[in-house]
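My current task is to audit a protein record that another person submitted. What it holds is a sequence and that sequence's fold in C-alpha coordinate form. Thanks in advance; the entry in question is below.
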Amino acid sequence: MSAASSRLQAALAERAQVWGGWVVGPTILGPEEFATAGYDYVGFDTQHGYLDDADVALMLRRLERVPIATAVRLPSAAPAPIGRVLDAGADAVIVAMVETPEQAAQAVAATRYAPAGVRSFGPLRADLGLDTPALEARAGVYAMVETAAALPNVAEICSVPGLSGVYVGPADLAVSMGQPVSAMWSAPEVTDAIKDVARSAAAAGLVAGIHAGDGRIGKLAAEWGFQLITLASESQALRRGAAEHLRDARGQTPTTQTTSKGYS
Protein backbone atom coordinates (compact mmCIF):
# COMPACT_ATOMS: atom_id res chain seq x y z
CA MET A 1 0.00 0.00 0.00
CA SER A 2 1.44 3.35 -1.00
CA ALA A 3 1.57 6.18 1.51
CA ALA A 4 0.80 8.67 -1.25
CA SER A 5 -2.83 7.61 -1.46
CA SER A 6 -5.19 5.46 0.53
CA ARG A 7 -7.65 2.77 -0.38
CA LEU A 8 -10.48 5.04 0.70
CA GLN A 9 -9.32 7.84 -1.59
CA ALA A 10 -9.02 5.38 -4.46
CA ALA A 11 -12.51 3.98 -3.87
CA LEU A 12 -14.07 7.46 -3.72
CA ALA A 13 -12.32 8.40 -6.96
CA GLU A 14 -13.62 5.31 -8.73
CA ARG A 15 -17.24 5.07 -7.58
CA ALA A 16 -20.19 7.37 -7.02
CA GLN A 17 -20.85 5.75 -3.64
CA VAL A 18 -18.72 3.70 -1.30
CA TRP A 19 -20.46 1.43 1.20
CA GLY A 20 -19.20 0.79 4.68
CA GLY A 21 -19.53 -1.54 7.63
CA TRP A 22 -18.97 -0.55 11.24
CA VAL A 23 -17.12 -2.28 14.06
CA VAL A 24 -17.71 -1.40 17.72
CA GLY A 25 -15.74 -4.12 19.52
CA PRO A 26 -12.56 -6.17 19.15
CA THR A 27 -12.99 -8.72 16.38
CA ILE A 28 -10.85 -10.91 14.17
CA LEU A 29 -13.23 -11.86 11.39
CA GLY A 30 -15.70 -8.95 11.22
CA PRO A 31 -13.78 -6.57 8.94
CA GLU A 32 -12.68 -9.44 6.70
CA GLU A 33 -16.29 -10.60 6.36
CA PHE A 34 -17.34 -7.08 5.35
CA ALA A 35 -14.59 -7.17 2.71
CA THR A 36 -15.73 -10.59 1.47
CA ALA A 37 -19.29 -9.29 1.20
CA GLY A 38 -18.09 -6.50 -1.09
CA TYR A 39 -18.08 -3.53 1.27
CA ASP A 40 -15.67 -0.73 0.36
CA TYR A 41 -14.63 0.31 3.85
CA VAL A 42 -14.99 -0.50 7.50
CA GLY A 43 -15.21 2.05 10.31
CA PHE A 44 -13.82 1.43 13.78
CA ASP A 45 -15.65 3.22 16.57
CA THR A 46 -13.56 4.50 19.50
CA GLN A 47 -16.28 6.93 20.57
CA HIS A 48 -19.29 4.70 21.28
CA GLY A 49 -17.60 1.34 20.76
CA TYR A 50 -15.51 -0.88 23.01
CA LEU A 51 -12.27 -0.29 21.17
CA ASP A 52 -9.00 1.27 22.27
CA ASP A 53 -5.93 2.26 20.26
CA ALA A 54 -4.34 -1.17 20.62
CA ASP A 55 -7.46 -2.93 19.35
CA VAL A 56 -7.64 -0.64 16.33
CA ALA A 57 -3.94 -1.02 15.56
CA LEU A 58 -4.17 -4.81 15.61
CA MET A 59 -7.23 -4.88 13.35
CA LEU A 60 -5.67 -2.42 10.94
CA ARG A 61 -2.57 -4.59 10.70
CA ARG A 62 -4.72 -7.66 9.96
CA LEU A 63 -6.32 -5.76 7.09
CA GLU A 64 -3.03 -4.84 5.45
CA ARG A 65 -3.58 -7.40 2.68
CA VAL A 66 -7.40 -7.41 2.74
CA PRO A 67 -9.05 -5.31 0.01
CA ILE A 68 -11.01 -2.90 2.19
CA ALA A 69 -10.47 0.71 3.22
CA THR A 70 -10.55 1.88 6.82
CA ALA A 71 -11.71 4.83 8.91
CA VAL A 72 -11.66 5.43 12.65
CA ARG A 73 -14.18 7.53 14.54
CA LEU A 74 -12.76 9.49 17.45
CA PRO A 75 -14.64 11.46 20.11
CA SER A 76 -12.67 14.69 19.66
CA ALA A 77 -9.93 16.42 17.72
CA ALA A 78 -7.29 15.63 20.38
CA PRO A 79 -4.06 15.24 18.36
CA ALA A 80 -2.51 12.23 20.10
CA PRO A 81 -5.31 9.67 19.48
CA ILE A 82 -5.72 10.87 15.90
CA GLY A 83 -2.00 10.55 15.29
CA ARG A 84 -1.88 7.05 16.76
CA VAL A 85 -4.59 5.60 14.52
CA LEU A 86 -3.09 7.25 11.44
CA ASP A 87 0.35 5.93 12.40
CA ALA A 88 -1.26 2.49 12.65
CA GLY A 89 -2.48 2.77 9.05
CA ALA A 90 -6.03 4.13 9.13
CA ASP A 91 -7.05 5.72 5.84
CA ALA A 92 -9.17 8.39 7.52
CA VAL A 93 -10.44 9.74 10.80
CA ILE A 94 -14.01 10.80 11.52
CA VAL A 95 -14.10 13.37 14.31
CA ALA A 96 -17.30 13.52 16.36
CA MET A 97 -19.34 16.54 17.45
CA VAL A 98 -17.81 19.21 15.25
CA GLU A 99 -19.89 22.37 15.48
CA THR A 100 -17.63 25.18 14.26
CA PRO A 101 -15.04 25.77 11.55
CA GLU A 102 -12.48 26.25 14.32
CA GLN A 103 -13.12 22.72 15.58
CA ALA A 104 -12.91 21.38 12.04
CA ALA A 105 -9.58 23.17 11.61
CA GLN A 106 -8.31 21.53 14.80
CA ALA A 107 -9.23 18.14 13.39
CA VAL A 108 -7.32 18.87 10.19
CA ALA A 109 -4.32 20.15 12.14
CA ALA A 110 -4.18 16.88 14.07
CA THR A 111 -3.56 15.05 10.77
CA ARG A 112 -0.83 17.43 9.55
CA TYR A 113 2.80 17.78 10.63
CA ALA A 114 4.47 21.09 11.45
CA PRO A 115 4.33 23.77 10.26
CA ALA A 116 0.84 23.06 8.88
CA GLY A 117 -0.41 21.18 11.93
CA VAL A 118 0.31 19.57 15.26
CA ARG A 119 0.69 15.88 14.38
CA SER A 120 3.72 14.30 16.01
CA PHE A 121 5.92 12.08 13.85
CA GLY A 122 5.86 8.50 15.12
CA PRO A 123 5.51 5.86 12.39
CA LEU A 124 4.22 2.44 13.38
CA ARG A 125 3.88 0.98 9.90
CA ALA A 126 7.07 0.52 7.89
CA ASP A 127 5.04 0.00 4.72
CA LEU A 128 3.73 3.58 4.92
CA GLY A 129 7.22 5.06 4.64
CA LEU A 130 8.72 8.18 6.17
CA ASP A 131 7.69 10.84 3.65
CA THR A 132 5.66 13.30 5.73
CA PRO A 133 3.95 15.06 2.79
CA ALA A 134 2.81 11.66 1.50
CA LEU A 135 1.60 10.61 4.95
CA GLU A 136 -0.38 13.83 5.22
CA ALA A 137 -1.85 13.41 1.74
CA ARG A 138 -3.26 9.94 2.48
CA ALA A 139 -4.85 10.96 5.80
CA GLY A 140 -8.51 11.71 5.21
CA VAL A 141 -10.30 13.80 7.83
CA TYR A 142 -14.08 14.05 8.17
CA ALA A 143 -15.96 16.38 10.50
CA MET A 144 -19.12 14.92 12.00
CA VAL A 145 -22.11 17.23 11.69
CA GLU A 146 -24.54 15.90 14.25
CA THR A 147 -25.99 18.78 16.27
CA ALA A 148 -28.41 21.60 15.67
CA ALA A 149 -25.66 24.00 16.72
CA ALA A 150 -23.52 22.87 13.77
CA LEU A 151 -26.17 23.43 11.10
CA PRO A 152 -25.78 27.22 10.70
CA ASN A 153 -22.03 26.68 10.35
CA VAL A 154 -21.98 23.87 7.80
CA ALA A 155 -20.88 26.05 4.86
CA GLU A 156 -18.03 27.51 6.94
CA ILE A 157 -17.04 24.06 8.18
CA CYS A 158 -16.90 22.86 4.58
CA SER A 159 -14.61 25.76 3.68
CA VAL A 160 -11.86 24.64 6.10
CA PRO A 161 -8.70 23.87 4.09
CA GLY A 162 -7.64 20.26 4.20
CA LEU A 163 -10.98 18.83 5.23
CA SER A 164 -11.91 15.74 3.20
CA GLY A 165 -15.60 15.82 3.94
CA VAL A 166 -18.40 15.91 6.47
CA TYR A 167 -20.16 12.93 8.01
CA VAL A 168 -23.71 13.16 9.33
CA GLY A 169 -24.68 11.50 12.61
CA PRO A 170 -28.48 11.34 12.23
CA ALA A 171 -29.35 10.11 15.73
CA ASP A 172 -27.61 12.90 17.62
CA LEU A 173 -28.82 15.39 15.05
CA ALA A 174 -32.43 14.38 15.61
CA VAL A 175 -32.08 14.50 19.40
CA SER A 176 -30.45 17.93 19.29
CA MET A 177 -33.34 19.18 17.16
CA GLY A 178 -35.87 18.05 19.73
CA GLN A 179 -36.91 14.89 17.91
CA PRO A 180 -36.83 11.30 19.17
CA VAL A 181 -34.20 9.02 17.71
CA SER A 182 -37.00 7.02 16.07
CA ALA A 183 -37.89 10.09 13.96
CA MET A 184 -34.44 10.74 12.50
CA TRP A 185 -35.48 9.46 9.06
CA SER A 186 -39.06 10.71 9.14
CA ALA A 187 -39.13 14.17 10.74
CA PRO A 188 -39.02 16.66 7.84
CA GLU A 189 -36.87 19.18 9.72
CA VAL A 190 -34.25 16.50 10.33
CA THR A 191 -34.25 15.06 6.82
CA ASP A 192 -34.18 18.56 5.32
CA ALA A 193 -31.14 19.37 7.46
CA ILE A 194 -29.44 16.16 6.36
CA LYS A 195 -30.03 17.01 2.70
CA ASP A 196 -28.68 20.52 3.27
CA VAL A 197 -25.44 19.08 4.65
CA ALA A 198 -25.02 16.99 1.50
CA ARG A 199 -25.63 20.03 -0.68
CA SER A 200 -23.11 22.13 1.27
CA ALA A 201 -20.47 19.44 0.94
CA ALA A 202 -21.06 19.13 -2.80
CA ALA A 203 -20.85 22.90 -3.24
CA ALA A 204 -17.47 22.88 -1.51
CA GLY A 205 -16.19 19.91 -3.47
CA LEU A 206 -16.09 17.70 -0.38
CA VAL A 207 -17.29 14.17 0.29
CA ALA A 208 -20.63 13.84 2.08
CA GLY A 209 -20.79 10.87 4.44
CA ILE A 210 -23.54 9.53 6.65
CA HIS A 211 -24.35 6.78 9.13
CA ALA A 212 -27.33 5.18 7.40
CA GLY A 213 -27.77 2.03 9.45
CA ASP A 214 -29.29 -0.22 6.79
CA GLY A 215 -29.44 -0.78 3.06
CA ARG A 216 -32.79 0.87 2.47
CA ILE A 217 -31.71 4.10 4.15
CA GLY A 218 -28.33 3.80 2.44
CA LYS A 219 -30.05 3.81 -0.96
CA LEU A 220 -32.03 6.88 0.06
CA ALA A 221 -28.88 8.63 1.26
CA ALA A 222 -27.24 7.95 -2.09
CA GLU A 223 -30.20 9.58 -3.81
CA TRP A 224 -29.69 12.61 -1.56
CA GLY A 225 -26.09 12.95 -2.77
CA PHE A 226 -24.13 11.14 -0.07
CA GLN A 227 -21.05 9.27 -1.19
CA LEU A 228 -19.57 7.69 1.95
CA ILE A 229 -22.39 5.61 3.42
CA THR A 230 -22.15 3.33 6.43
CA LEU A 231 -24.77 0.60 6.17
CA ALA A 232 -24.53 -1.62 9.21
CA SER A 233 -22.49 -2.47 12.26
CA GLU A 234 -21.08 -5.93 12.77
CA SER A 235 -23.71 -6.62 15.44
CA GLN A 236 -26.54 -5.49 13.13
CA ALA A 237 -25.25 -7.70 10.31
CA LEU A 238 -24.88 -10.66 12.65
CA ARG A 239 -28.37 -10.15 14.10
CA ARG A 240 -29.97 -9.95 10.67
CA GLY A 241 -28.13 -12.96 9.32
CA ALA A 242 -28.82 -15.01 12.43
CA ALA A 243 -32.53 -14.14 12.29
CA GLU A 244 -32.74 -15.14 8.62
CA HIS A 245 -31.12 -18.52 9.31
CA LEU A 246 -33.54 -19.14 12.18
CA ARG A 247 -36.56 -18.19 10.03
CA ASP A 248 -35.33 -20.52 7.28
CA ALA A 249 -34.93 -23.37 9.75
CA ARG A 250 -38.43 -22.84 11.13
CA GLY A 251 -39.95 -22.39 7.67
CA GLN A 252 -41.24 -18.96 8.60
CA THR A 253 -42.04 -16.14 6.20
CA PRO A 254 -39.63 -13.20 6.53
CA THR A 255 -41.15 -10.24 8.33
CA THR A 256 -41.31 -6.81 6.73
CA GLN A 257 -38.06 -4.96 7.24
CA THR A 258 -38.37 -2.17 9.74
CA THR A 259 -36.43 1.05 9.77
CA SER A 260 -33.00 0.51 11.22
CA LYS A 261 -31.94 2.33 14.32
CA GLY A 262 -28.99 3.64 12.33
CA TYR A 263 -27.37 4.99 15.46
CA SER A 264 -24.37 7.22 15.04
